């Protein structure tokens, strides 16, 4: 979103129209020498438009014809001069006489490099005049047809912010006061007030000026944002929610609501998960910089795989928090100035001991050892099918995944560049960034599938219950060795499920070779025992041997499973100690306290 004048004189106009554009313009416009007569656009045949309001017939433009509609325009000597420092807004398009005259003047002064807003909610008028279609050649005309005045003003505010915060120059067609006086007077008053208010100044208010932080949460269907919202409520942190768009077509509406909320709520910073809400073009990034509003993005998945999609996001107003400490150095090397380690956590009000409330649960849940996890079978196949990989990469992805799983490298790209330069050349030759992302994700997920299967095989002697998708039947066809349960709901079922197993078994994804996953927090918070694979960063979170039990090899996994299945008192002591640590350090309130403190220190 570029700021600056809404229009410039011809000698300072933007790029000239493409060849043939002016000819097409002359053929379609009534306002260029050589174009058709004015009556072909807004002609006298439209002077008798009749609409009904409250049972009465109203004729537009009424007695006096189109001349009556032109009467409210300022003298040509005074217009369009003012639009060099303002955004003209025609309130009510009528039969097109005033619109045509405004466009004629603007075109004479600025060529095609002008902008004009037209506010008109009267569909029974615009459907008869077809003015939107007739003036569609002018890219700078923005039509606002919202029936709710607040929605219309939100669109005007978005337009104003996109055009550099210039004030509005309202031009009210008085004929429209007969159609809906309250609506159009409200629009006129708001536009007139904008001439006295600097919108950019309003949005560049001082951040963190109060004792308590104010947070704008970008919400989505991602599970974690609900926990952050609940944590803010428990902490008493003032916050507002802004729903993320489902598709690219809704991005403009999202930005409009974002601007409106910033003006209304005045947040100290914006919070999102995994960069959700950030667009590839950098529109939101540009806006954050213009209004000096910082954004905190907490990555709970591999940021390198996600940031591939957003090349225009390096900004001093964006702070990154990553659940994997191994990513901090590499993210800073990419040009992100503010990067902090922030591990996962849990909601101990949702995951808490249920020892007195387990009666009536499915008998199938009552097992000695259980594992909750996706087989990765379908995820790998679906991602590979979407990848459109070259033959050398497609044929070798499984072997590459095996090597990556055993490598110390954190990223597939770094692994193949170092150990398989022949494959790296094919990787670099892939047609676009998205295809390279698909390849890295495919290899990472395949490495996770192979590793996860090997870990689960280590506990097969104990007839585990496996909770997940039915891809497990393809990996473990001998169902006499294990039991299956379909996937469980994270919010309503897993908090009850974990305490049913004597030992909850865990193995970590290959996208995180040093960090820990969600189950490391959720299981002990629920008052249950966890046996997990060792990750270096776990030592900063729990005391191994006392608060967490880790295996370092497949052989040790089987040995520890056997040992702790027979030691209920020790299991209870470990899970109780882990829960005490979680209540002191690892709830989502602790995570938000850290984010708020970091954002205040950085941006106050």
Distance between the termini: 25 Å
CA-atom Rg in angstroms? 31 Å
In DSSP terms (H or I, runs of 4 or more residues), the helix count works out at 25
* Oligomeric category: single chain
How are strands sequenced across the largest beta sheet?
8-7-9-10-11-12
Under the CATH scheme, the architecture of the largest domain is 3-Layer(aba) Sandwich
- Tertiary shape: elongated
Beta content: 5-15%
Helix/strand class: alpha/beta
CATH third-tier fold name of the largest domain: Rossmann fold
- Per CATH, the class of the largest domain reads Alpha Beta
User: How many β-strand runs?
Assistant: 18
Low-confidence segments, given as residue ranges, are 1-46
Helix content: 40-55%
Q: What average pLDDT do the residues reach?
A: 86
Main sheet record: 6 strands, parallel
Number of domains: 3
Care to describe what's here?
With 604 residues, this protein is an alpha/beta fold. It folds into three domains: 10-200, Rossmann fold (3-Layer(aba) Sandwich), CATH 3.40.50; 214-345 and 598-603, Rossmann fold (3-Layer(aba) Sandwich); 363-387 and 433-586, Rossmann fold, CATH 3.40.50. The protein is built from 25 helices and 18 strands. It has a six-stranded parallel β-sheet with strand order 8-7-9-10-11-12, sandwiched between helices. Helix 15 runs antiparallel to helix 19 (433-458) and helix 16 (391-406) crosses helix 19 (433-458). It starts with 20 loop residues before the first helix and ends with a helix. The model is unreliable at 1-46 (pLDDT under 50).
């Amino acid at each position: 979103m570029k700021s600056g004048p809404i229009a410039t004189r011809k000698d300072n106009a933007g790029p000239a129209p493409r060849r043939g554009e002016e000819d097409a313009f002359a053929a379609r416009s009534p306002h260029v020498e050589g174009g058709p007569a004015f009556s072909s656009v807004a002609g006298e045949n439209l002077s008798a438009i009749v609409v009904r309001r409250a049972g009465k017939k109203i004729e537009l433009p009424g007695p006096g014809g189109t001349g009556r509609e032109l009467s409210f325009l300022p003298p040509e000597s005074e217009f369009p001069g003012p639009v060099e420092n303002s955004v003209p807004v025609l309130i009510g398009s009528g039969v097109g006489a005033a619109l045509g005259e405004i466009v004629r003047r603007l075109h004479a002064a600025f060529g095609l490099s002008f902008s004009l807003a037209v506010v008109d909610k009267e569909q029974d008028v615009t459907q008869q005049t077809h003015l939107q279609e007739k003036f569609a050649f002018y890219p700078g005309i923005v039509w606002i047809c919202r029936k709710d005045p607040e929605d219309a003003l939100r669109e005007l505010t978005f337009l104003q912010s996109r055009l550099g915060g210039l004030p509005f120059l309202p031009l009210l067609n008085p004929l429209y006061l007969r159609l809906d006086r309250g609506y159009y007077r409200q629009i006129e008053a708001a536009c007139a007030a904008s001439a006295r208010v600097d919108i950019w100044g309003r949005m560049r208010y001082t951040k963190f000026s109060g004792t308590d932080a104010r947070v704008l949460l970008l919400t989505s269907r991602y599970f974690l944002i609900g926990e952050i919202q609940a944590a803010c409520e428990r902490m008493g942190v003032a916050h507002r929610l802004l729903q993320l768009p489902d598709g690219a077509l809704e991005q403009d509406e999202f930005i409009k609501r974002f601007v409106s909320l910033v003006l209304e709520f005045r947040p100290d910073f914006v919070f999102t998960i995994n960069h959700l809400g950030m667009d590839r073009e950098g529109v939101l990034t540009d806006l954050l910089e213009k209004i000096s509003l910082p954004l905190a993005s907490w990555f709970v998945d591999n940021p390198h795989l996600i940031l591939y999609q957003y090349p225009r996001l390096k900004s001093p107003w964006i702070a990154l928090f990553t659940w994997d400490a191994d990513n901090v150095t590499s993210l800073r090397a990419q040009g992100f100035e503010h990067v902090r380690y922030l591990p996962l956590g849990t909601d101990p009000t949702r995951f808490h001991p249920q020892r007195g409330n387990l009666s009536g649960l499915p008998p199938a849940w009552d097992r000695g050892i259980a594992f909750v996890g996706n087989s990765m079978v379908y995820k790998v196949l679906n991602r590979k099918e979407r990848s459109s990989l070259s033959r050398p990469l497609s044929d070798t992805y499984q072997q590459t995944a095996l090597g990556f799983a055993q490598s110390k490298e954190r990223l597939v790209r770094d692994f193949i560049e170092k150990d398989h330069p022949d494959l790296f050349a094919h990787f670099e030759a892939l047609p676009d960034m998205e295809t390279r992302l698909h390849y890295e994700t495919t290899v990472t997920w395949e490495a996770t599938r192979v590793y996860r299967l090997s870990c689960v095989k280590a506990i097969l002697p104990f007839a585990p219950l496996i909770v997940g998708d039915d891809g497990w039947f393809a990996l473990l066809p001998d169902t006499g060795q294990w039991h299956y349960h379909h996937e469980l709901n994270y919010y309503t079922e897993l908090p009850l499920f974990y305490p049913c197993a004597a030992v909850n078994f865990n193995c970590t994804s290959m996208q995180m070779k040093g960090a820990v996953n969600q189950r490391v927090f959720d299981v002990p918070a629920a008052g249950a025992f966890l046996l997990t694979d060792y990750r270096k960063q776990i030592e900063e979170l729990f005391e191994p041997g006392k608060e967490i039990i880790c295996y370092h090899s497949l052989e040790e996994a089987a040995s520890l499973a056997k040992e702790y299945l027979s030691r209920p008192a020790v299991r209870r002591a470990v899970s109780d100690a882990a829960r005490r640590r979680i209540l002191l350090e690892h709830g989502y309130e602790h995570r938000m306290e850290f984010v708020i403190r970091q954002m205040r220190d950085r941006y106050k």
